[in-house]
Design goal:
The protein has 225 residues and is of the alpha/beta class. It has a single domain (46-221), classed as Arginase, Chain A (3-Layer(aba) Sandwich), CATH 3.40.800. The chain has six helices and six strands, in the order H-E-H-E-H-E-H-E-E-H-E-H. It has helices at 29-42, 57-68, 96-102, 119-128, 177-184, 208-221, and strands at 48-50, 71-76, 106-114, 131-134, 150-155, 193-197. Helix 5 (177-184) links the parallel strand 5 (150-155) and strand 6 (193-197). Helix 1 (29-42) packs parallel to helix 2 (57-68) and helix 2 (57-68) packs parallel to helix 3 (96-102).
Amino acid sequence: MAAENGREIGVDISFEDLGDLPLTEGAGDFEMIRAAAEAAARAGAAPIFLGGDHMVTNPIVQGLAAVHGPVNILHFDAHPDTYDDFEGDPLSHASPFARIMEGGHARRLVQVGLRTANAHCRDQAKRFGAEMVEMRDFAAGSVPIPDAPLYVSLDIDALDPAFAPGVSHHEPGGLSVRDVLNVLHRINAPIIGADIVEYNPTRDINGMTAVVAAKFLKELAGLAG
């Protein structure tokens, strides 16, 4: 099974499915995710996590930063996910990048495909120095690609619902599958990890979003060291 860059899983890429973390929707989940990311990095692996809501990116990046130091992030999403406190929960799916940036776990944050940024999120972008590539201004060839160590966070709702209906928050006017791939293919150094999040199978149609997520998994694996 080959990624578009020609690298084959099982030939050029060593790939192992470690299964699901035994999450409980409780207070211990954060540390379990963080520890798994750190353990993978210490073993020399570039972990790819499958979610799940976007809150998981915060503990994942914290775990990786414990090994690699502060990382750089390329983030695909319809939403900035930089709320200081969303509905009383500072660790919610709408807040991971606020926690990452204020904690010093990342140096640079490039966000691609945004089309819901409100005044608070724009203020947060200024606070953290986040680089917002809004969908209305999107051109794959002009998206900034941060230097290594690079982590990729891919929220499936970055895509237009026509390409990925299996998400909880449909936001029309988004990226195509090829748009995302064209940006990923401009990465020219091995990534240290990635996540693919916010897939909701109860809203999928004929498994089409699942197939899109699997395509992204293969392409991200092709970018790993």
